[in-house]
Structures are given as structure tokens and as C-alpha cells.
Amino acid sequence: MPNLLAGKVGIISGALDERSIAWKVAQKAYAEGARFVLTNAPLAMRMGEINRLSEECEAPIIPADATSMEDLEKLFRGTQEHFGGKIDFVLHSIGMSTNIRKGKHYGELNYEWFQKTLDVSALSLHRMLAVAEKQDAFNEWGSVVALSYIAAQRAFLDYTDMSQAKAVLESIARSYGQRLGKLRKVRVNTISQSPTKTSAGTGISGFDAFYEYAERMSPLGNAPAEACADYCISLFSDLTRYVTMQNLMHDGGFSTTGISEEMVELLTNSKG
Fold it and tell me: So what EC number does this one have (predicted)?
């Protein structure tokens, strides 16, 4: 079914470079007929290549610090002014942990940085949706998707305070999904994605080992960024109108696999 998003307009946050899931979502949304605004924090924009994506997708850029209500108000107002009406979808692909970047293990977290992790990576979703609600920015049957990770439910070494951030993110999606569903029939979901070789993902200590572990554990293997983008597009489309307040696992079966044959063989051989 071509042009799944024909006539739809939205906001895509977090596209840093071509390895970003948000970058691939933008490309696929454009191919499916959507029009959208790209946004990211000014610092992240200086580090990334968003101008190239903007040209490729004919998408204007409105910089916004996701911890600033003023910036987000300008983002949503500017998007509606640009398209001459309300919006249909939002991708929240925002996450940052100074504790991880500085190599702090879980027992020695800097609490000011911890609060910043929660502010940037989770509370930003609440801010975005609160601004959208106040501006009545969504068309009916709109869709919000935020990217999460299974560390919200399980303990993973080296993911430290981002585990709590993802748990809060998923909780906000449920609570705001209930609210926006009643107000405007807008649905809000999170996608719990396989470990993915993005610029952010590969910055985590031990990432390569865990990526290989998840690959061996998942019956279908790790879901690549392109497949995650396809899933996002399906959730933006009218084909998923009654899916809301869900944390949707997109991980090749990792989350429901006890142990795989590959892992059994690996452990058995290592003892030999």
C-alpha cells in the first residue's frame, strides 16, 4: 500500500546522522508522502548533518531544546504555521546521559546529571505533549511514537540512569495516551527497539558485546534501524488507529526468549 502517509504532516525529532533511527524514519515518511518539520537541540544540530536530511526530504528545520517549554511552544506553533493547520504525528527520539558519557557506573552516579538524563530523555515527552495539548495542535487520530529500550524492564550493565529514563518515558506515554485519546483520539506508543548501531548506542560501554549477545538470543536477529523506521511509519498510518498506550517490542523476539540454541552451544563449547 504506497503513500501510507499521504496528506499527513508532523514533527520528527532526534535525527543526528544517517545512522539515527529518526533519520531513517524521516526518509521513509517522506517516501510515503508525509511532510514534516525536523527538530533537534541546537548543540546536537551542530554536531550532526541534519541540513543534508532537510534538503533530501524538503523538510524545514526548527531548532528546539526539548527541556525548554518556550522552545517547544515555538516548535509546535511554527510547525502549524508552516503547514497551515494541525499535525498528525510526532516522533520522540531524544535521549542523553552525561553519566554514561563520562563512564560513571551505577553506584557512583552524579545526581545532577541523573536529573538531566530524566529531563532530556523522558520529561521532554511530557513537555511536548503538554504543549501540543495546550495549542490543540493534533488532528484527530494523530499518532505519537517515542523510542524506548528493554532496559526499562530489565537490568543491563552500563545502561545506568538511562534505564530509569526509559521507564519514565514509557509511563508518560501510557498516561498521556489515555488523556489524548479521550481529548482528540490521539494515540501514544513507545517502541522498544533492539540494540542498534547508532551514534548514541555505540557510545555505551560494552555495546558491541551486548549487540552480539542479543543477536544470538533473538530468533529473528536484531531488528535493524530501517525495520524500526518501517514500524514507526505503520504506527503513524491509519492502519493502527486503535493501538495506543502500548510499549511495543521490536527486537526479533529477544524479550520473550529464555535461551537460544546458539547460546547453549556457545556456553557448552566454552566449557569444553
Answer: 1.3.1.9
